Amino acid sequence: MVMDLYKGRFNNKTASIAHEFNSSIGVDYKLYRVDIKGSKAHAKMLNKCGIISDEEFTKIDSGLDSILLDIENGNLEFSKDAEDIHMFIESELTNRIGDAGKKLHTARSRNDQVAVDVKLFTIEASKRAIDLLVELERIIFKVAEENLDSVMPGYTHLQIAQPVTFAHHIMAYAQMFLRDISRISDARDRMMTSPLGAGALATTTYEIDRDFTALELGFKAPTLNSMDSVSDRDHVVELLYCLANVGMHFSRLAEELIIYSSQEFKFITIADEYSSGSSIMPQKKNPDMAELLRAKSACLYSNLMGIMTMLKGIPLAYNKDMQEDKEYLFDSVETFEISIEVLKGMLDTMVVNSNRMREMAHKGYINATDTADYLVKKGLAFRDAYYITGSIVKYGISENLSLNEIPLEKYKEFSEVFEEDYYKFIDLDYILNERKVFWWSFS
Ligand code: ARG
C-alpha cells in the first residue's frame, strides 16, 4: 500500500486521470539507486546532528538497504499508485520499518531530494560518458595504427583534393572526441555542489550539516543559494549539450562509413554483424547501424531543445514542469550509450580496403598541387605555377592521361623548367612522406 499523503489537506482523492498525468514513477523509477543513496546520506546526517536517534537511523539505513536489494533482485515492483520514486521509497520504508520511516523526510523537501538525485545521476552519467569515449578513442587509435600506410584520397567538397592516409583521416575524429571528453569533464566539475538541505526553497530551521551530506555523496561542497539549488537544471542542459555535440560527431563519422562502404567507393567493408539485409533484394548489405547513428543525433539535439524550452519560462523556485527533465536526460544518456557501443563494435570489426583506397588516390589529378609546388621550387611564382598546372590538368583530361602518364616532352611545352625529377616529386608516397603530420597518443 502506497501512503495517501494529501488526505489531511484534501477532501477528495486525486482523479485517476490526474494521477496518471501527475505521476512520474513510470519514468523516474530509474533514479531509485541515487534516491536511496541520497536518503542514506540524509539520514546519517540527521543522526549525526541529533535530529534522529541511533536506533531510528539504524532502522532507516538497513530498511533502505533492503529496499535497494529487493529492487535489484526483482523482488520489489514499482507501484503505479505512487506519485514518484521518492514517495514510493519513503512509503515502502515506512511499511517495512514503521514509525522511524516517517522521520526520514525531516528537514528535507522532495524539491531538494529530486535535485540531488538528478545531479547524482547526471554526474554518474558524465563519468560513464567519458569512460566510453576513452574506449572509443582507443579503437580509433588501433585502426589508425593499422593504417599508417593506407593512402587514400583526401576530399574537400567531396571532390578528390590531396592524398592523405586513412590513419590521418580517422584521427581527425579522435580530436573531435577528445574535445568532447574535455567538454564533459569540464561540465562535470561544475556539477560538484550538493543542493541537499535547500529544502523546498528556503532551507530549514533544523540544525543540519550540509557540508556533511555534500561530502558523504561525493560532492565538493554544498550549493550556495537555496532557491537556485532547487530550480537549477543547468547540469542536465550541459550534459545534454555535450551529448548532442558527440551525436553530431557520430553522425558525421556515420555518414562517411555509409559513403565509404558503398559500391562506388568500397574503401571499407562493414562487418556482417553490424549490417542488415533487404527483405526483397537478396544481394543487399545495408549500413543500417551507421544510418541509425546518423539519425540518433536528431534525438540528442531534440532532447537538448526540449529541456531548454521546458526551463525557459519557469519562475523561481521549483515548478512541476521540472519533473519532465528526466525524460530528456534519460533518453539522451541511453541513446548515447547504445550508440557509442554500436559505433565501437562497427569500427573494431570493419575491414579497411587499402588497395582500393590507393587505386582511387591515383585519380582526380590528386597531385596537381604538388605539380604547382614543383614549379615554385624551380623558381616560378605560385600563381603562374597554378595557371600552368591547371592547363596541364585540362590537357590530361582531354587525352585521358594522369599527371604521371603525360610524357616529359609534353610537360616542357608548358614550362621549360620540368625535368625528370618531377615524376618522383608527384609520387603519392613521396608526397605523403614530405608532409608534416602531427601524431599524438594516450601513452
Ligand atoms: N517527481 C517530482 C519531480 O521529479 C518530485 C518533486 C515534487 N515536488 C513537489 N513540490 N511537487 O520533479
UniProtKB/TrEMBL annotation:
<keyword id="KW-0456">Lyase</keyword>
<dbReference type="InterPro" id="IPR024083">
    <property type="entry name" value="Fumarase/histidase_N"/>
</dbReference>
<comment type="pathway">
    <text>Amino-acid biosynthesis; L-arginine biosynthesis; L-arginine from L-ornithine and carbamoyl phosphate: step 3/3.</text>
</comment>
<dbReference type="GO" id="GO:0042450">
    <property type="term" value="P:L-arginine biosynthetic process via ornithine"/>
</dbReference>
<dbReference type="InterPro" id="IPR022761">
    <property type="entry name" value="Fumarate_lyase_N"/>
</dbReference>
<feature type="domain" description="Fumarate lyase N-terminal">
    <location>
        <begin position="8"/>
        <end position="297"/>
    </location>
</feature>
<keyword id="KW-0963">Cytoplasm</keyword>
<protein>
    <recommendedName>
        <fullName>Argininosuccinate lyase</fullName>
        <ecNumber>4.3.2.1</ecNumber>
    </recommendedName>
</protein>
<dbReference type="Pfam" id="PF14698">
    <property type="entry name" value="ASL_C2"/>
</dbReference>
<dbReference type="InterPro" id="IPR029419">
    <property type="entry name" value="Arg_succ_lyase_C"/>
</dbReference>
<dbReference type="InterPro" id="IPR008948">
    <property type="entry name" value="L-Aspartase-like"/>
</dbReference>
<dbReference type="InterPro" id="IPR000362">
    <property type="entry name" value="Fumarate_lyase_fam"/>
</dbReference>
<dbReference type="GO" id="GO:0004056">
    <property type="term" value="F:argininosuccinate lyase activity"/>
</dbReference>
<dbReference type="InterPro" id="IPR009049">
    <property type="entry name" value="Argininosuccinate_lyase"/>
</dbReference>
<comment type="similarity">
    <text>Belongs to the lyase 1 family. Argininosuccinate lyase subfamily.</text>
</comment>
<dbReference type="Pfam" id="PF00206">
    <property type="entry name" value="Lyase_1"/>
</dbReference>
<keyword id="KW-0055">Arginine biosynthesis</keyword>
<keyword id="KW-0028">Amino-acid biosynthesis</keyword>
<feature type="domain" description="Argininosuccinate lyase C-terminal">
    <location>
        <begin position="365"/>
        <end position="432"/>
    </location>
</feature>
<dbReference type="InterPro" id="IPR020557">
    <property type="entry name" value="Fumarate_lyase_CS"/>
</dbReference>
<dbReference type="GO" id="GO:0005829">
    <property type="term" value="C:cytosol"/>
</dbReference>
